[in-house]
Amino acid sequence: MKEERRRRKLEEALRTPGDYQHRALESGHPIQRQWHRSKLGLLDWFFTPAPGERVLDVGCGSGVFAAAMASRGAEVEAIDANDDAIAYARRTFERPGLRFACGLLEDLDFPPASFDRAVCLEVIEHIEVERTRRLLGHLRRIVRRGGALLVTTPNYRGLWPLVEWGADRFSGAAHMGGVQHVTRFHRSRIARLLAEEGFRVEAIRTYCTLAPFAAALSRRLASACDGVERRIDLPFGNLLAVRAVNEAHGSD
After folding, report:
1. Would you call 251 exposed, middle or buried from its count of C-beta atoms within 10 A (0-12, 13-18, 19+)?
2. Pairing relation of β-strands 75-80 and 54-58?
3. What is the pLDDT of residues 68-125, one digit of tens each?
4. Under the phi-then-psi rule, with left for phi > 0, alpha for psi from -120 to 50, and beta for the rest, what region is 26?
5. How far apart are CA 219 and CA 196, in angstroms?
6. How far apart are CA 124 and CA 145, in angstroms?
7. Angle, CA 155 vertex, CA 136 and CA 17 arms, to 5°
8. Hey, how many other C-beta atoms are within 10 angstroms of the C-beta on 96?
């Protein structure tokens, strides 16, 4: 049964258009565009790879975030189970210092301590908790001791459940509640899970709360709201951003 559920969720991922994140950033509805701009903004104020650092992007989608990290000088390896997304990312972004691979992390043979940092953006809500534990175990092994991890996920003790409810009923997007999103996280739950798997949480913040919806009115207002959200941790924020440090010795 678990393998069947895993197969079904992988098939759902494969049905997502490969260019989705890039298209949403460049030409989506103003709310979508600001949503993805706010994610990229994390590199400016919350999680900034240094030039030359080796970074793994797990669940990279169409490659937007990976490309942004590489543009800052990081050496980036980006992976996704969606072969259409990887094909799009390779056509659009791949260059020296930025590589894309198709597959699940557990199936790719990365050596121990081969990365300085890793990012996992809006992935863990799509999988069961035990699979998240296994994912973190793999990351614990391949991220060096003292290396940093960025995890983002919806905040189910904020406004996100209302956003999800509205999107599921009034937008043309794929249904999220109970279909794409199978595990619900909040601050204490994600912090506890990371600690149990050998990571020390350095910071946990919300973002993508007011700015995306302000963008429906004006880009200038959205930028102002984004600035507020960078300075003030809103407890009711839509998405959680967690920065953690690998404190384990690199073994599963």
Report:
1. exposed
2. parallel
3. 999 999 999 999 999 999 999 999 999 999 999 999 999 998 999 999 999 999 999 9
4. alpha
5. 41
6. 22
7. 70
8. 7
pTM of the prediction? 0.90
Q: Please name which of 155, 146, 151, 112 lies closest in space to residue 132, comparing C-alpha atoms.
A: 151
Backbone angles phi, psi at 174, to 5 degrees: -60, 145
Contact 97, 151 (CB under 8 A): no
Do 126 and 181 contact (CB within 8 A), yes or no? yes
Determine whether 72 is exposed, middle or buried from the number of CB atoms within 10 Å of its CB (0-12, 13-18, 19+): middle
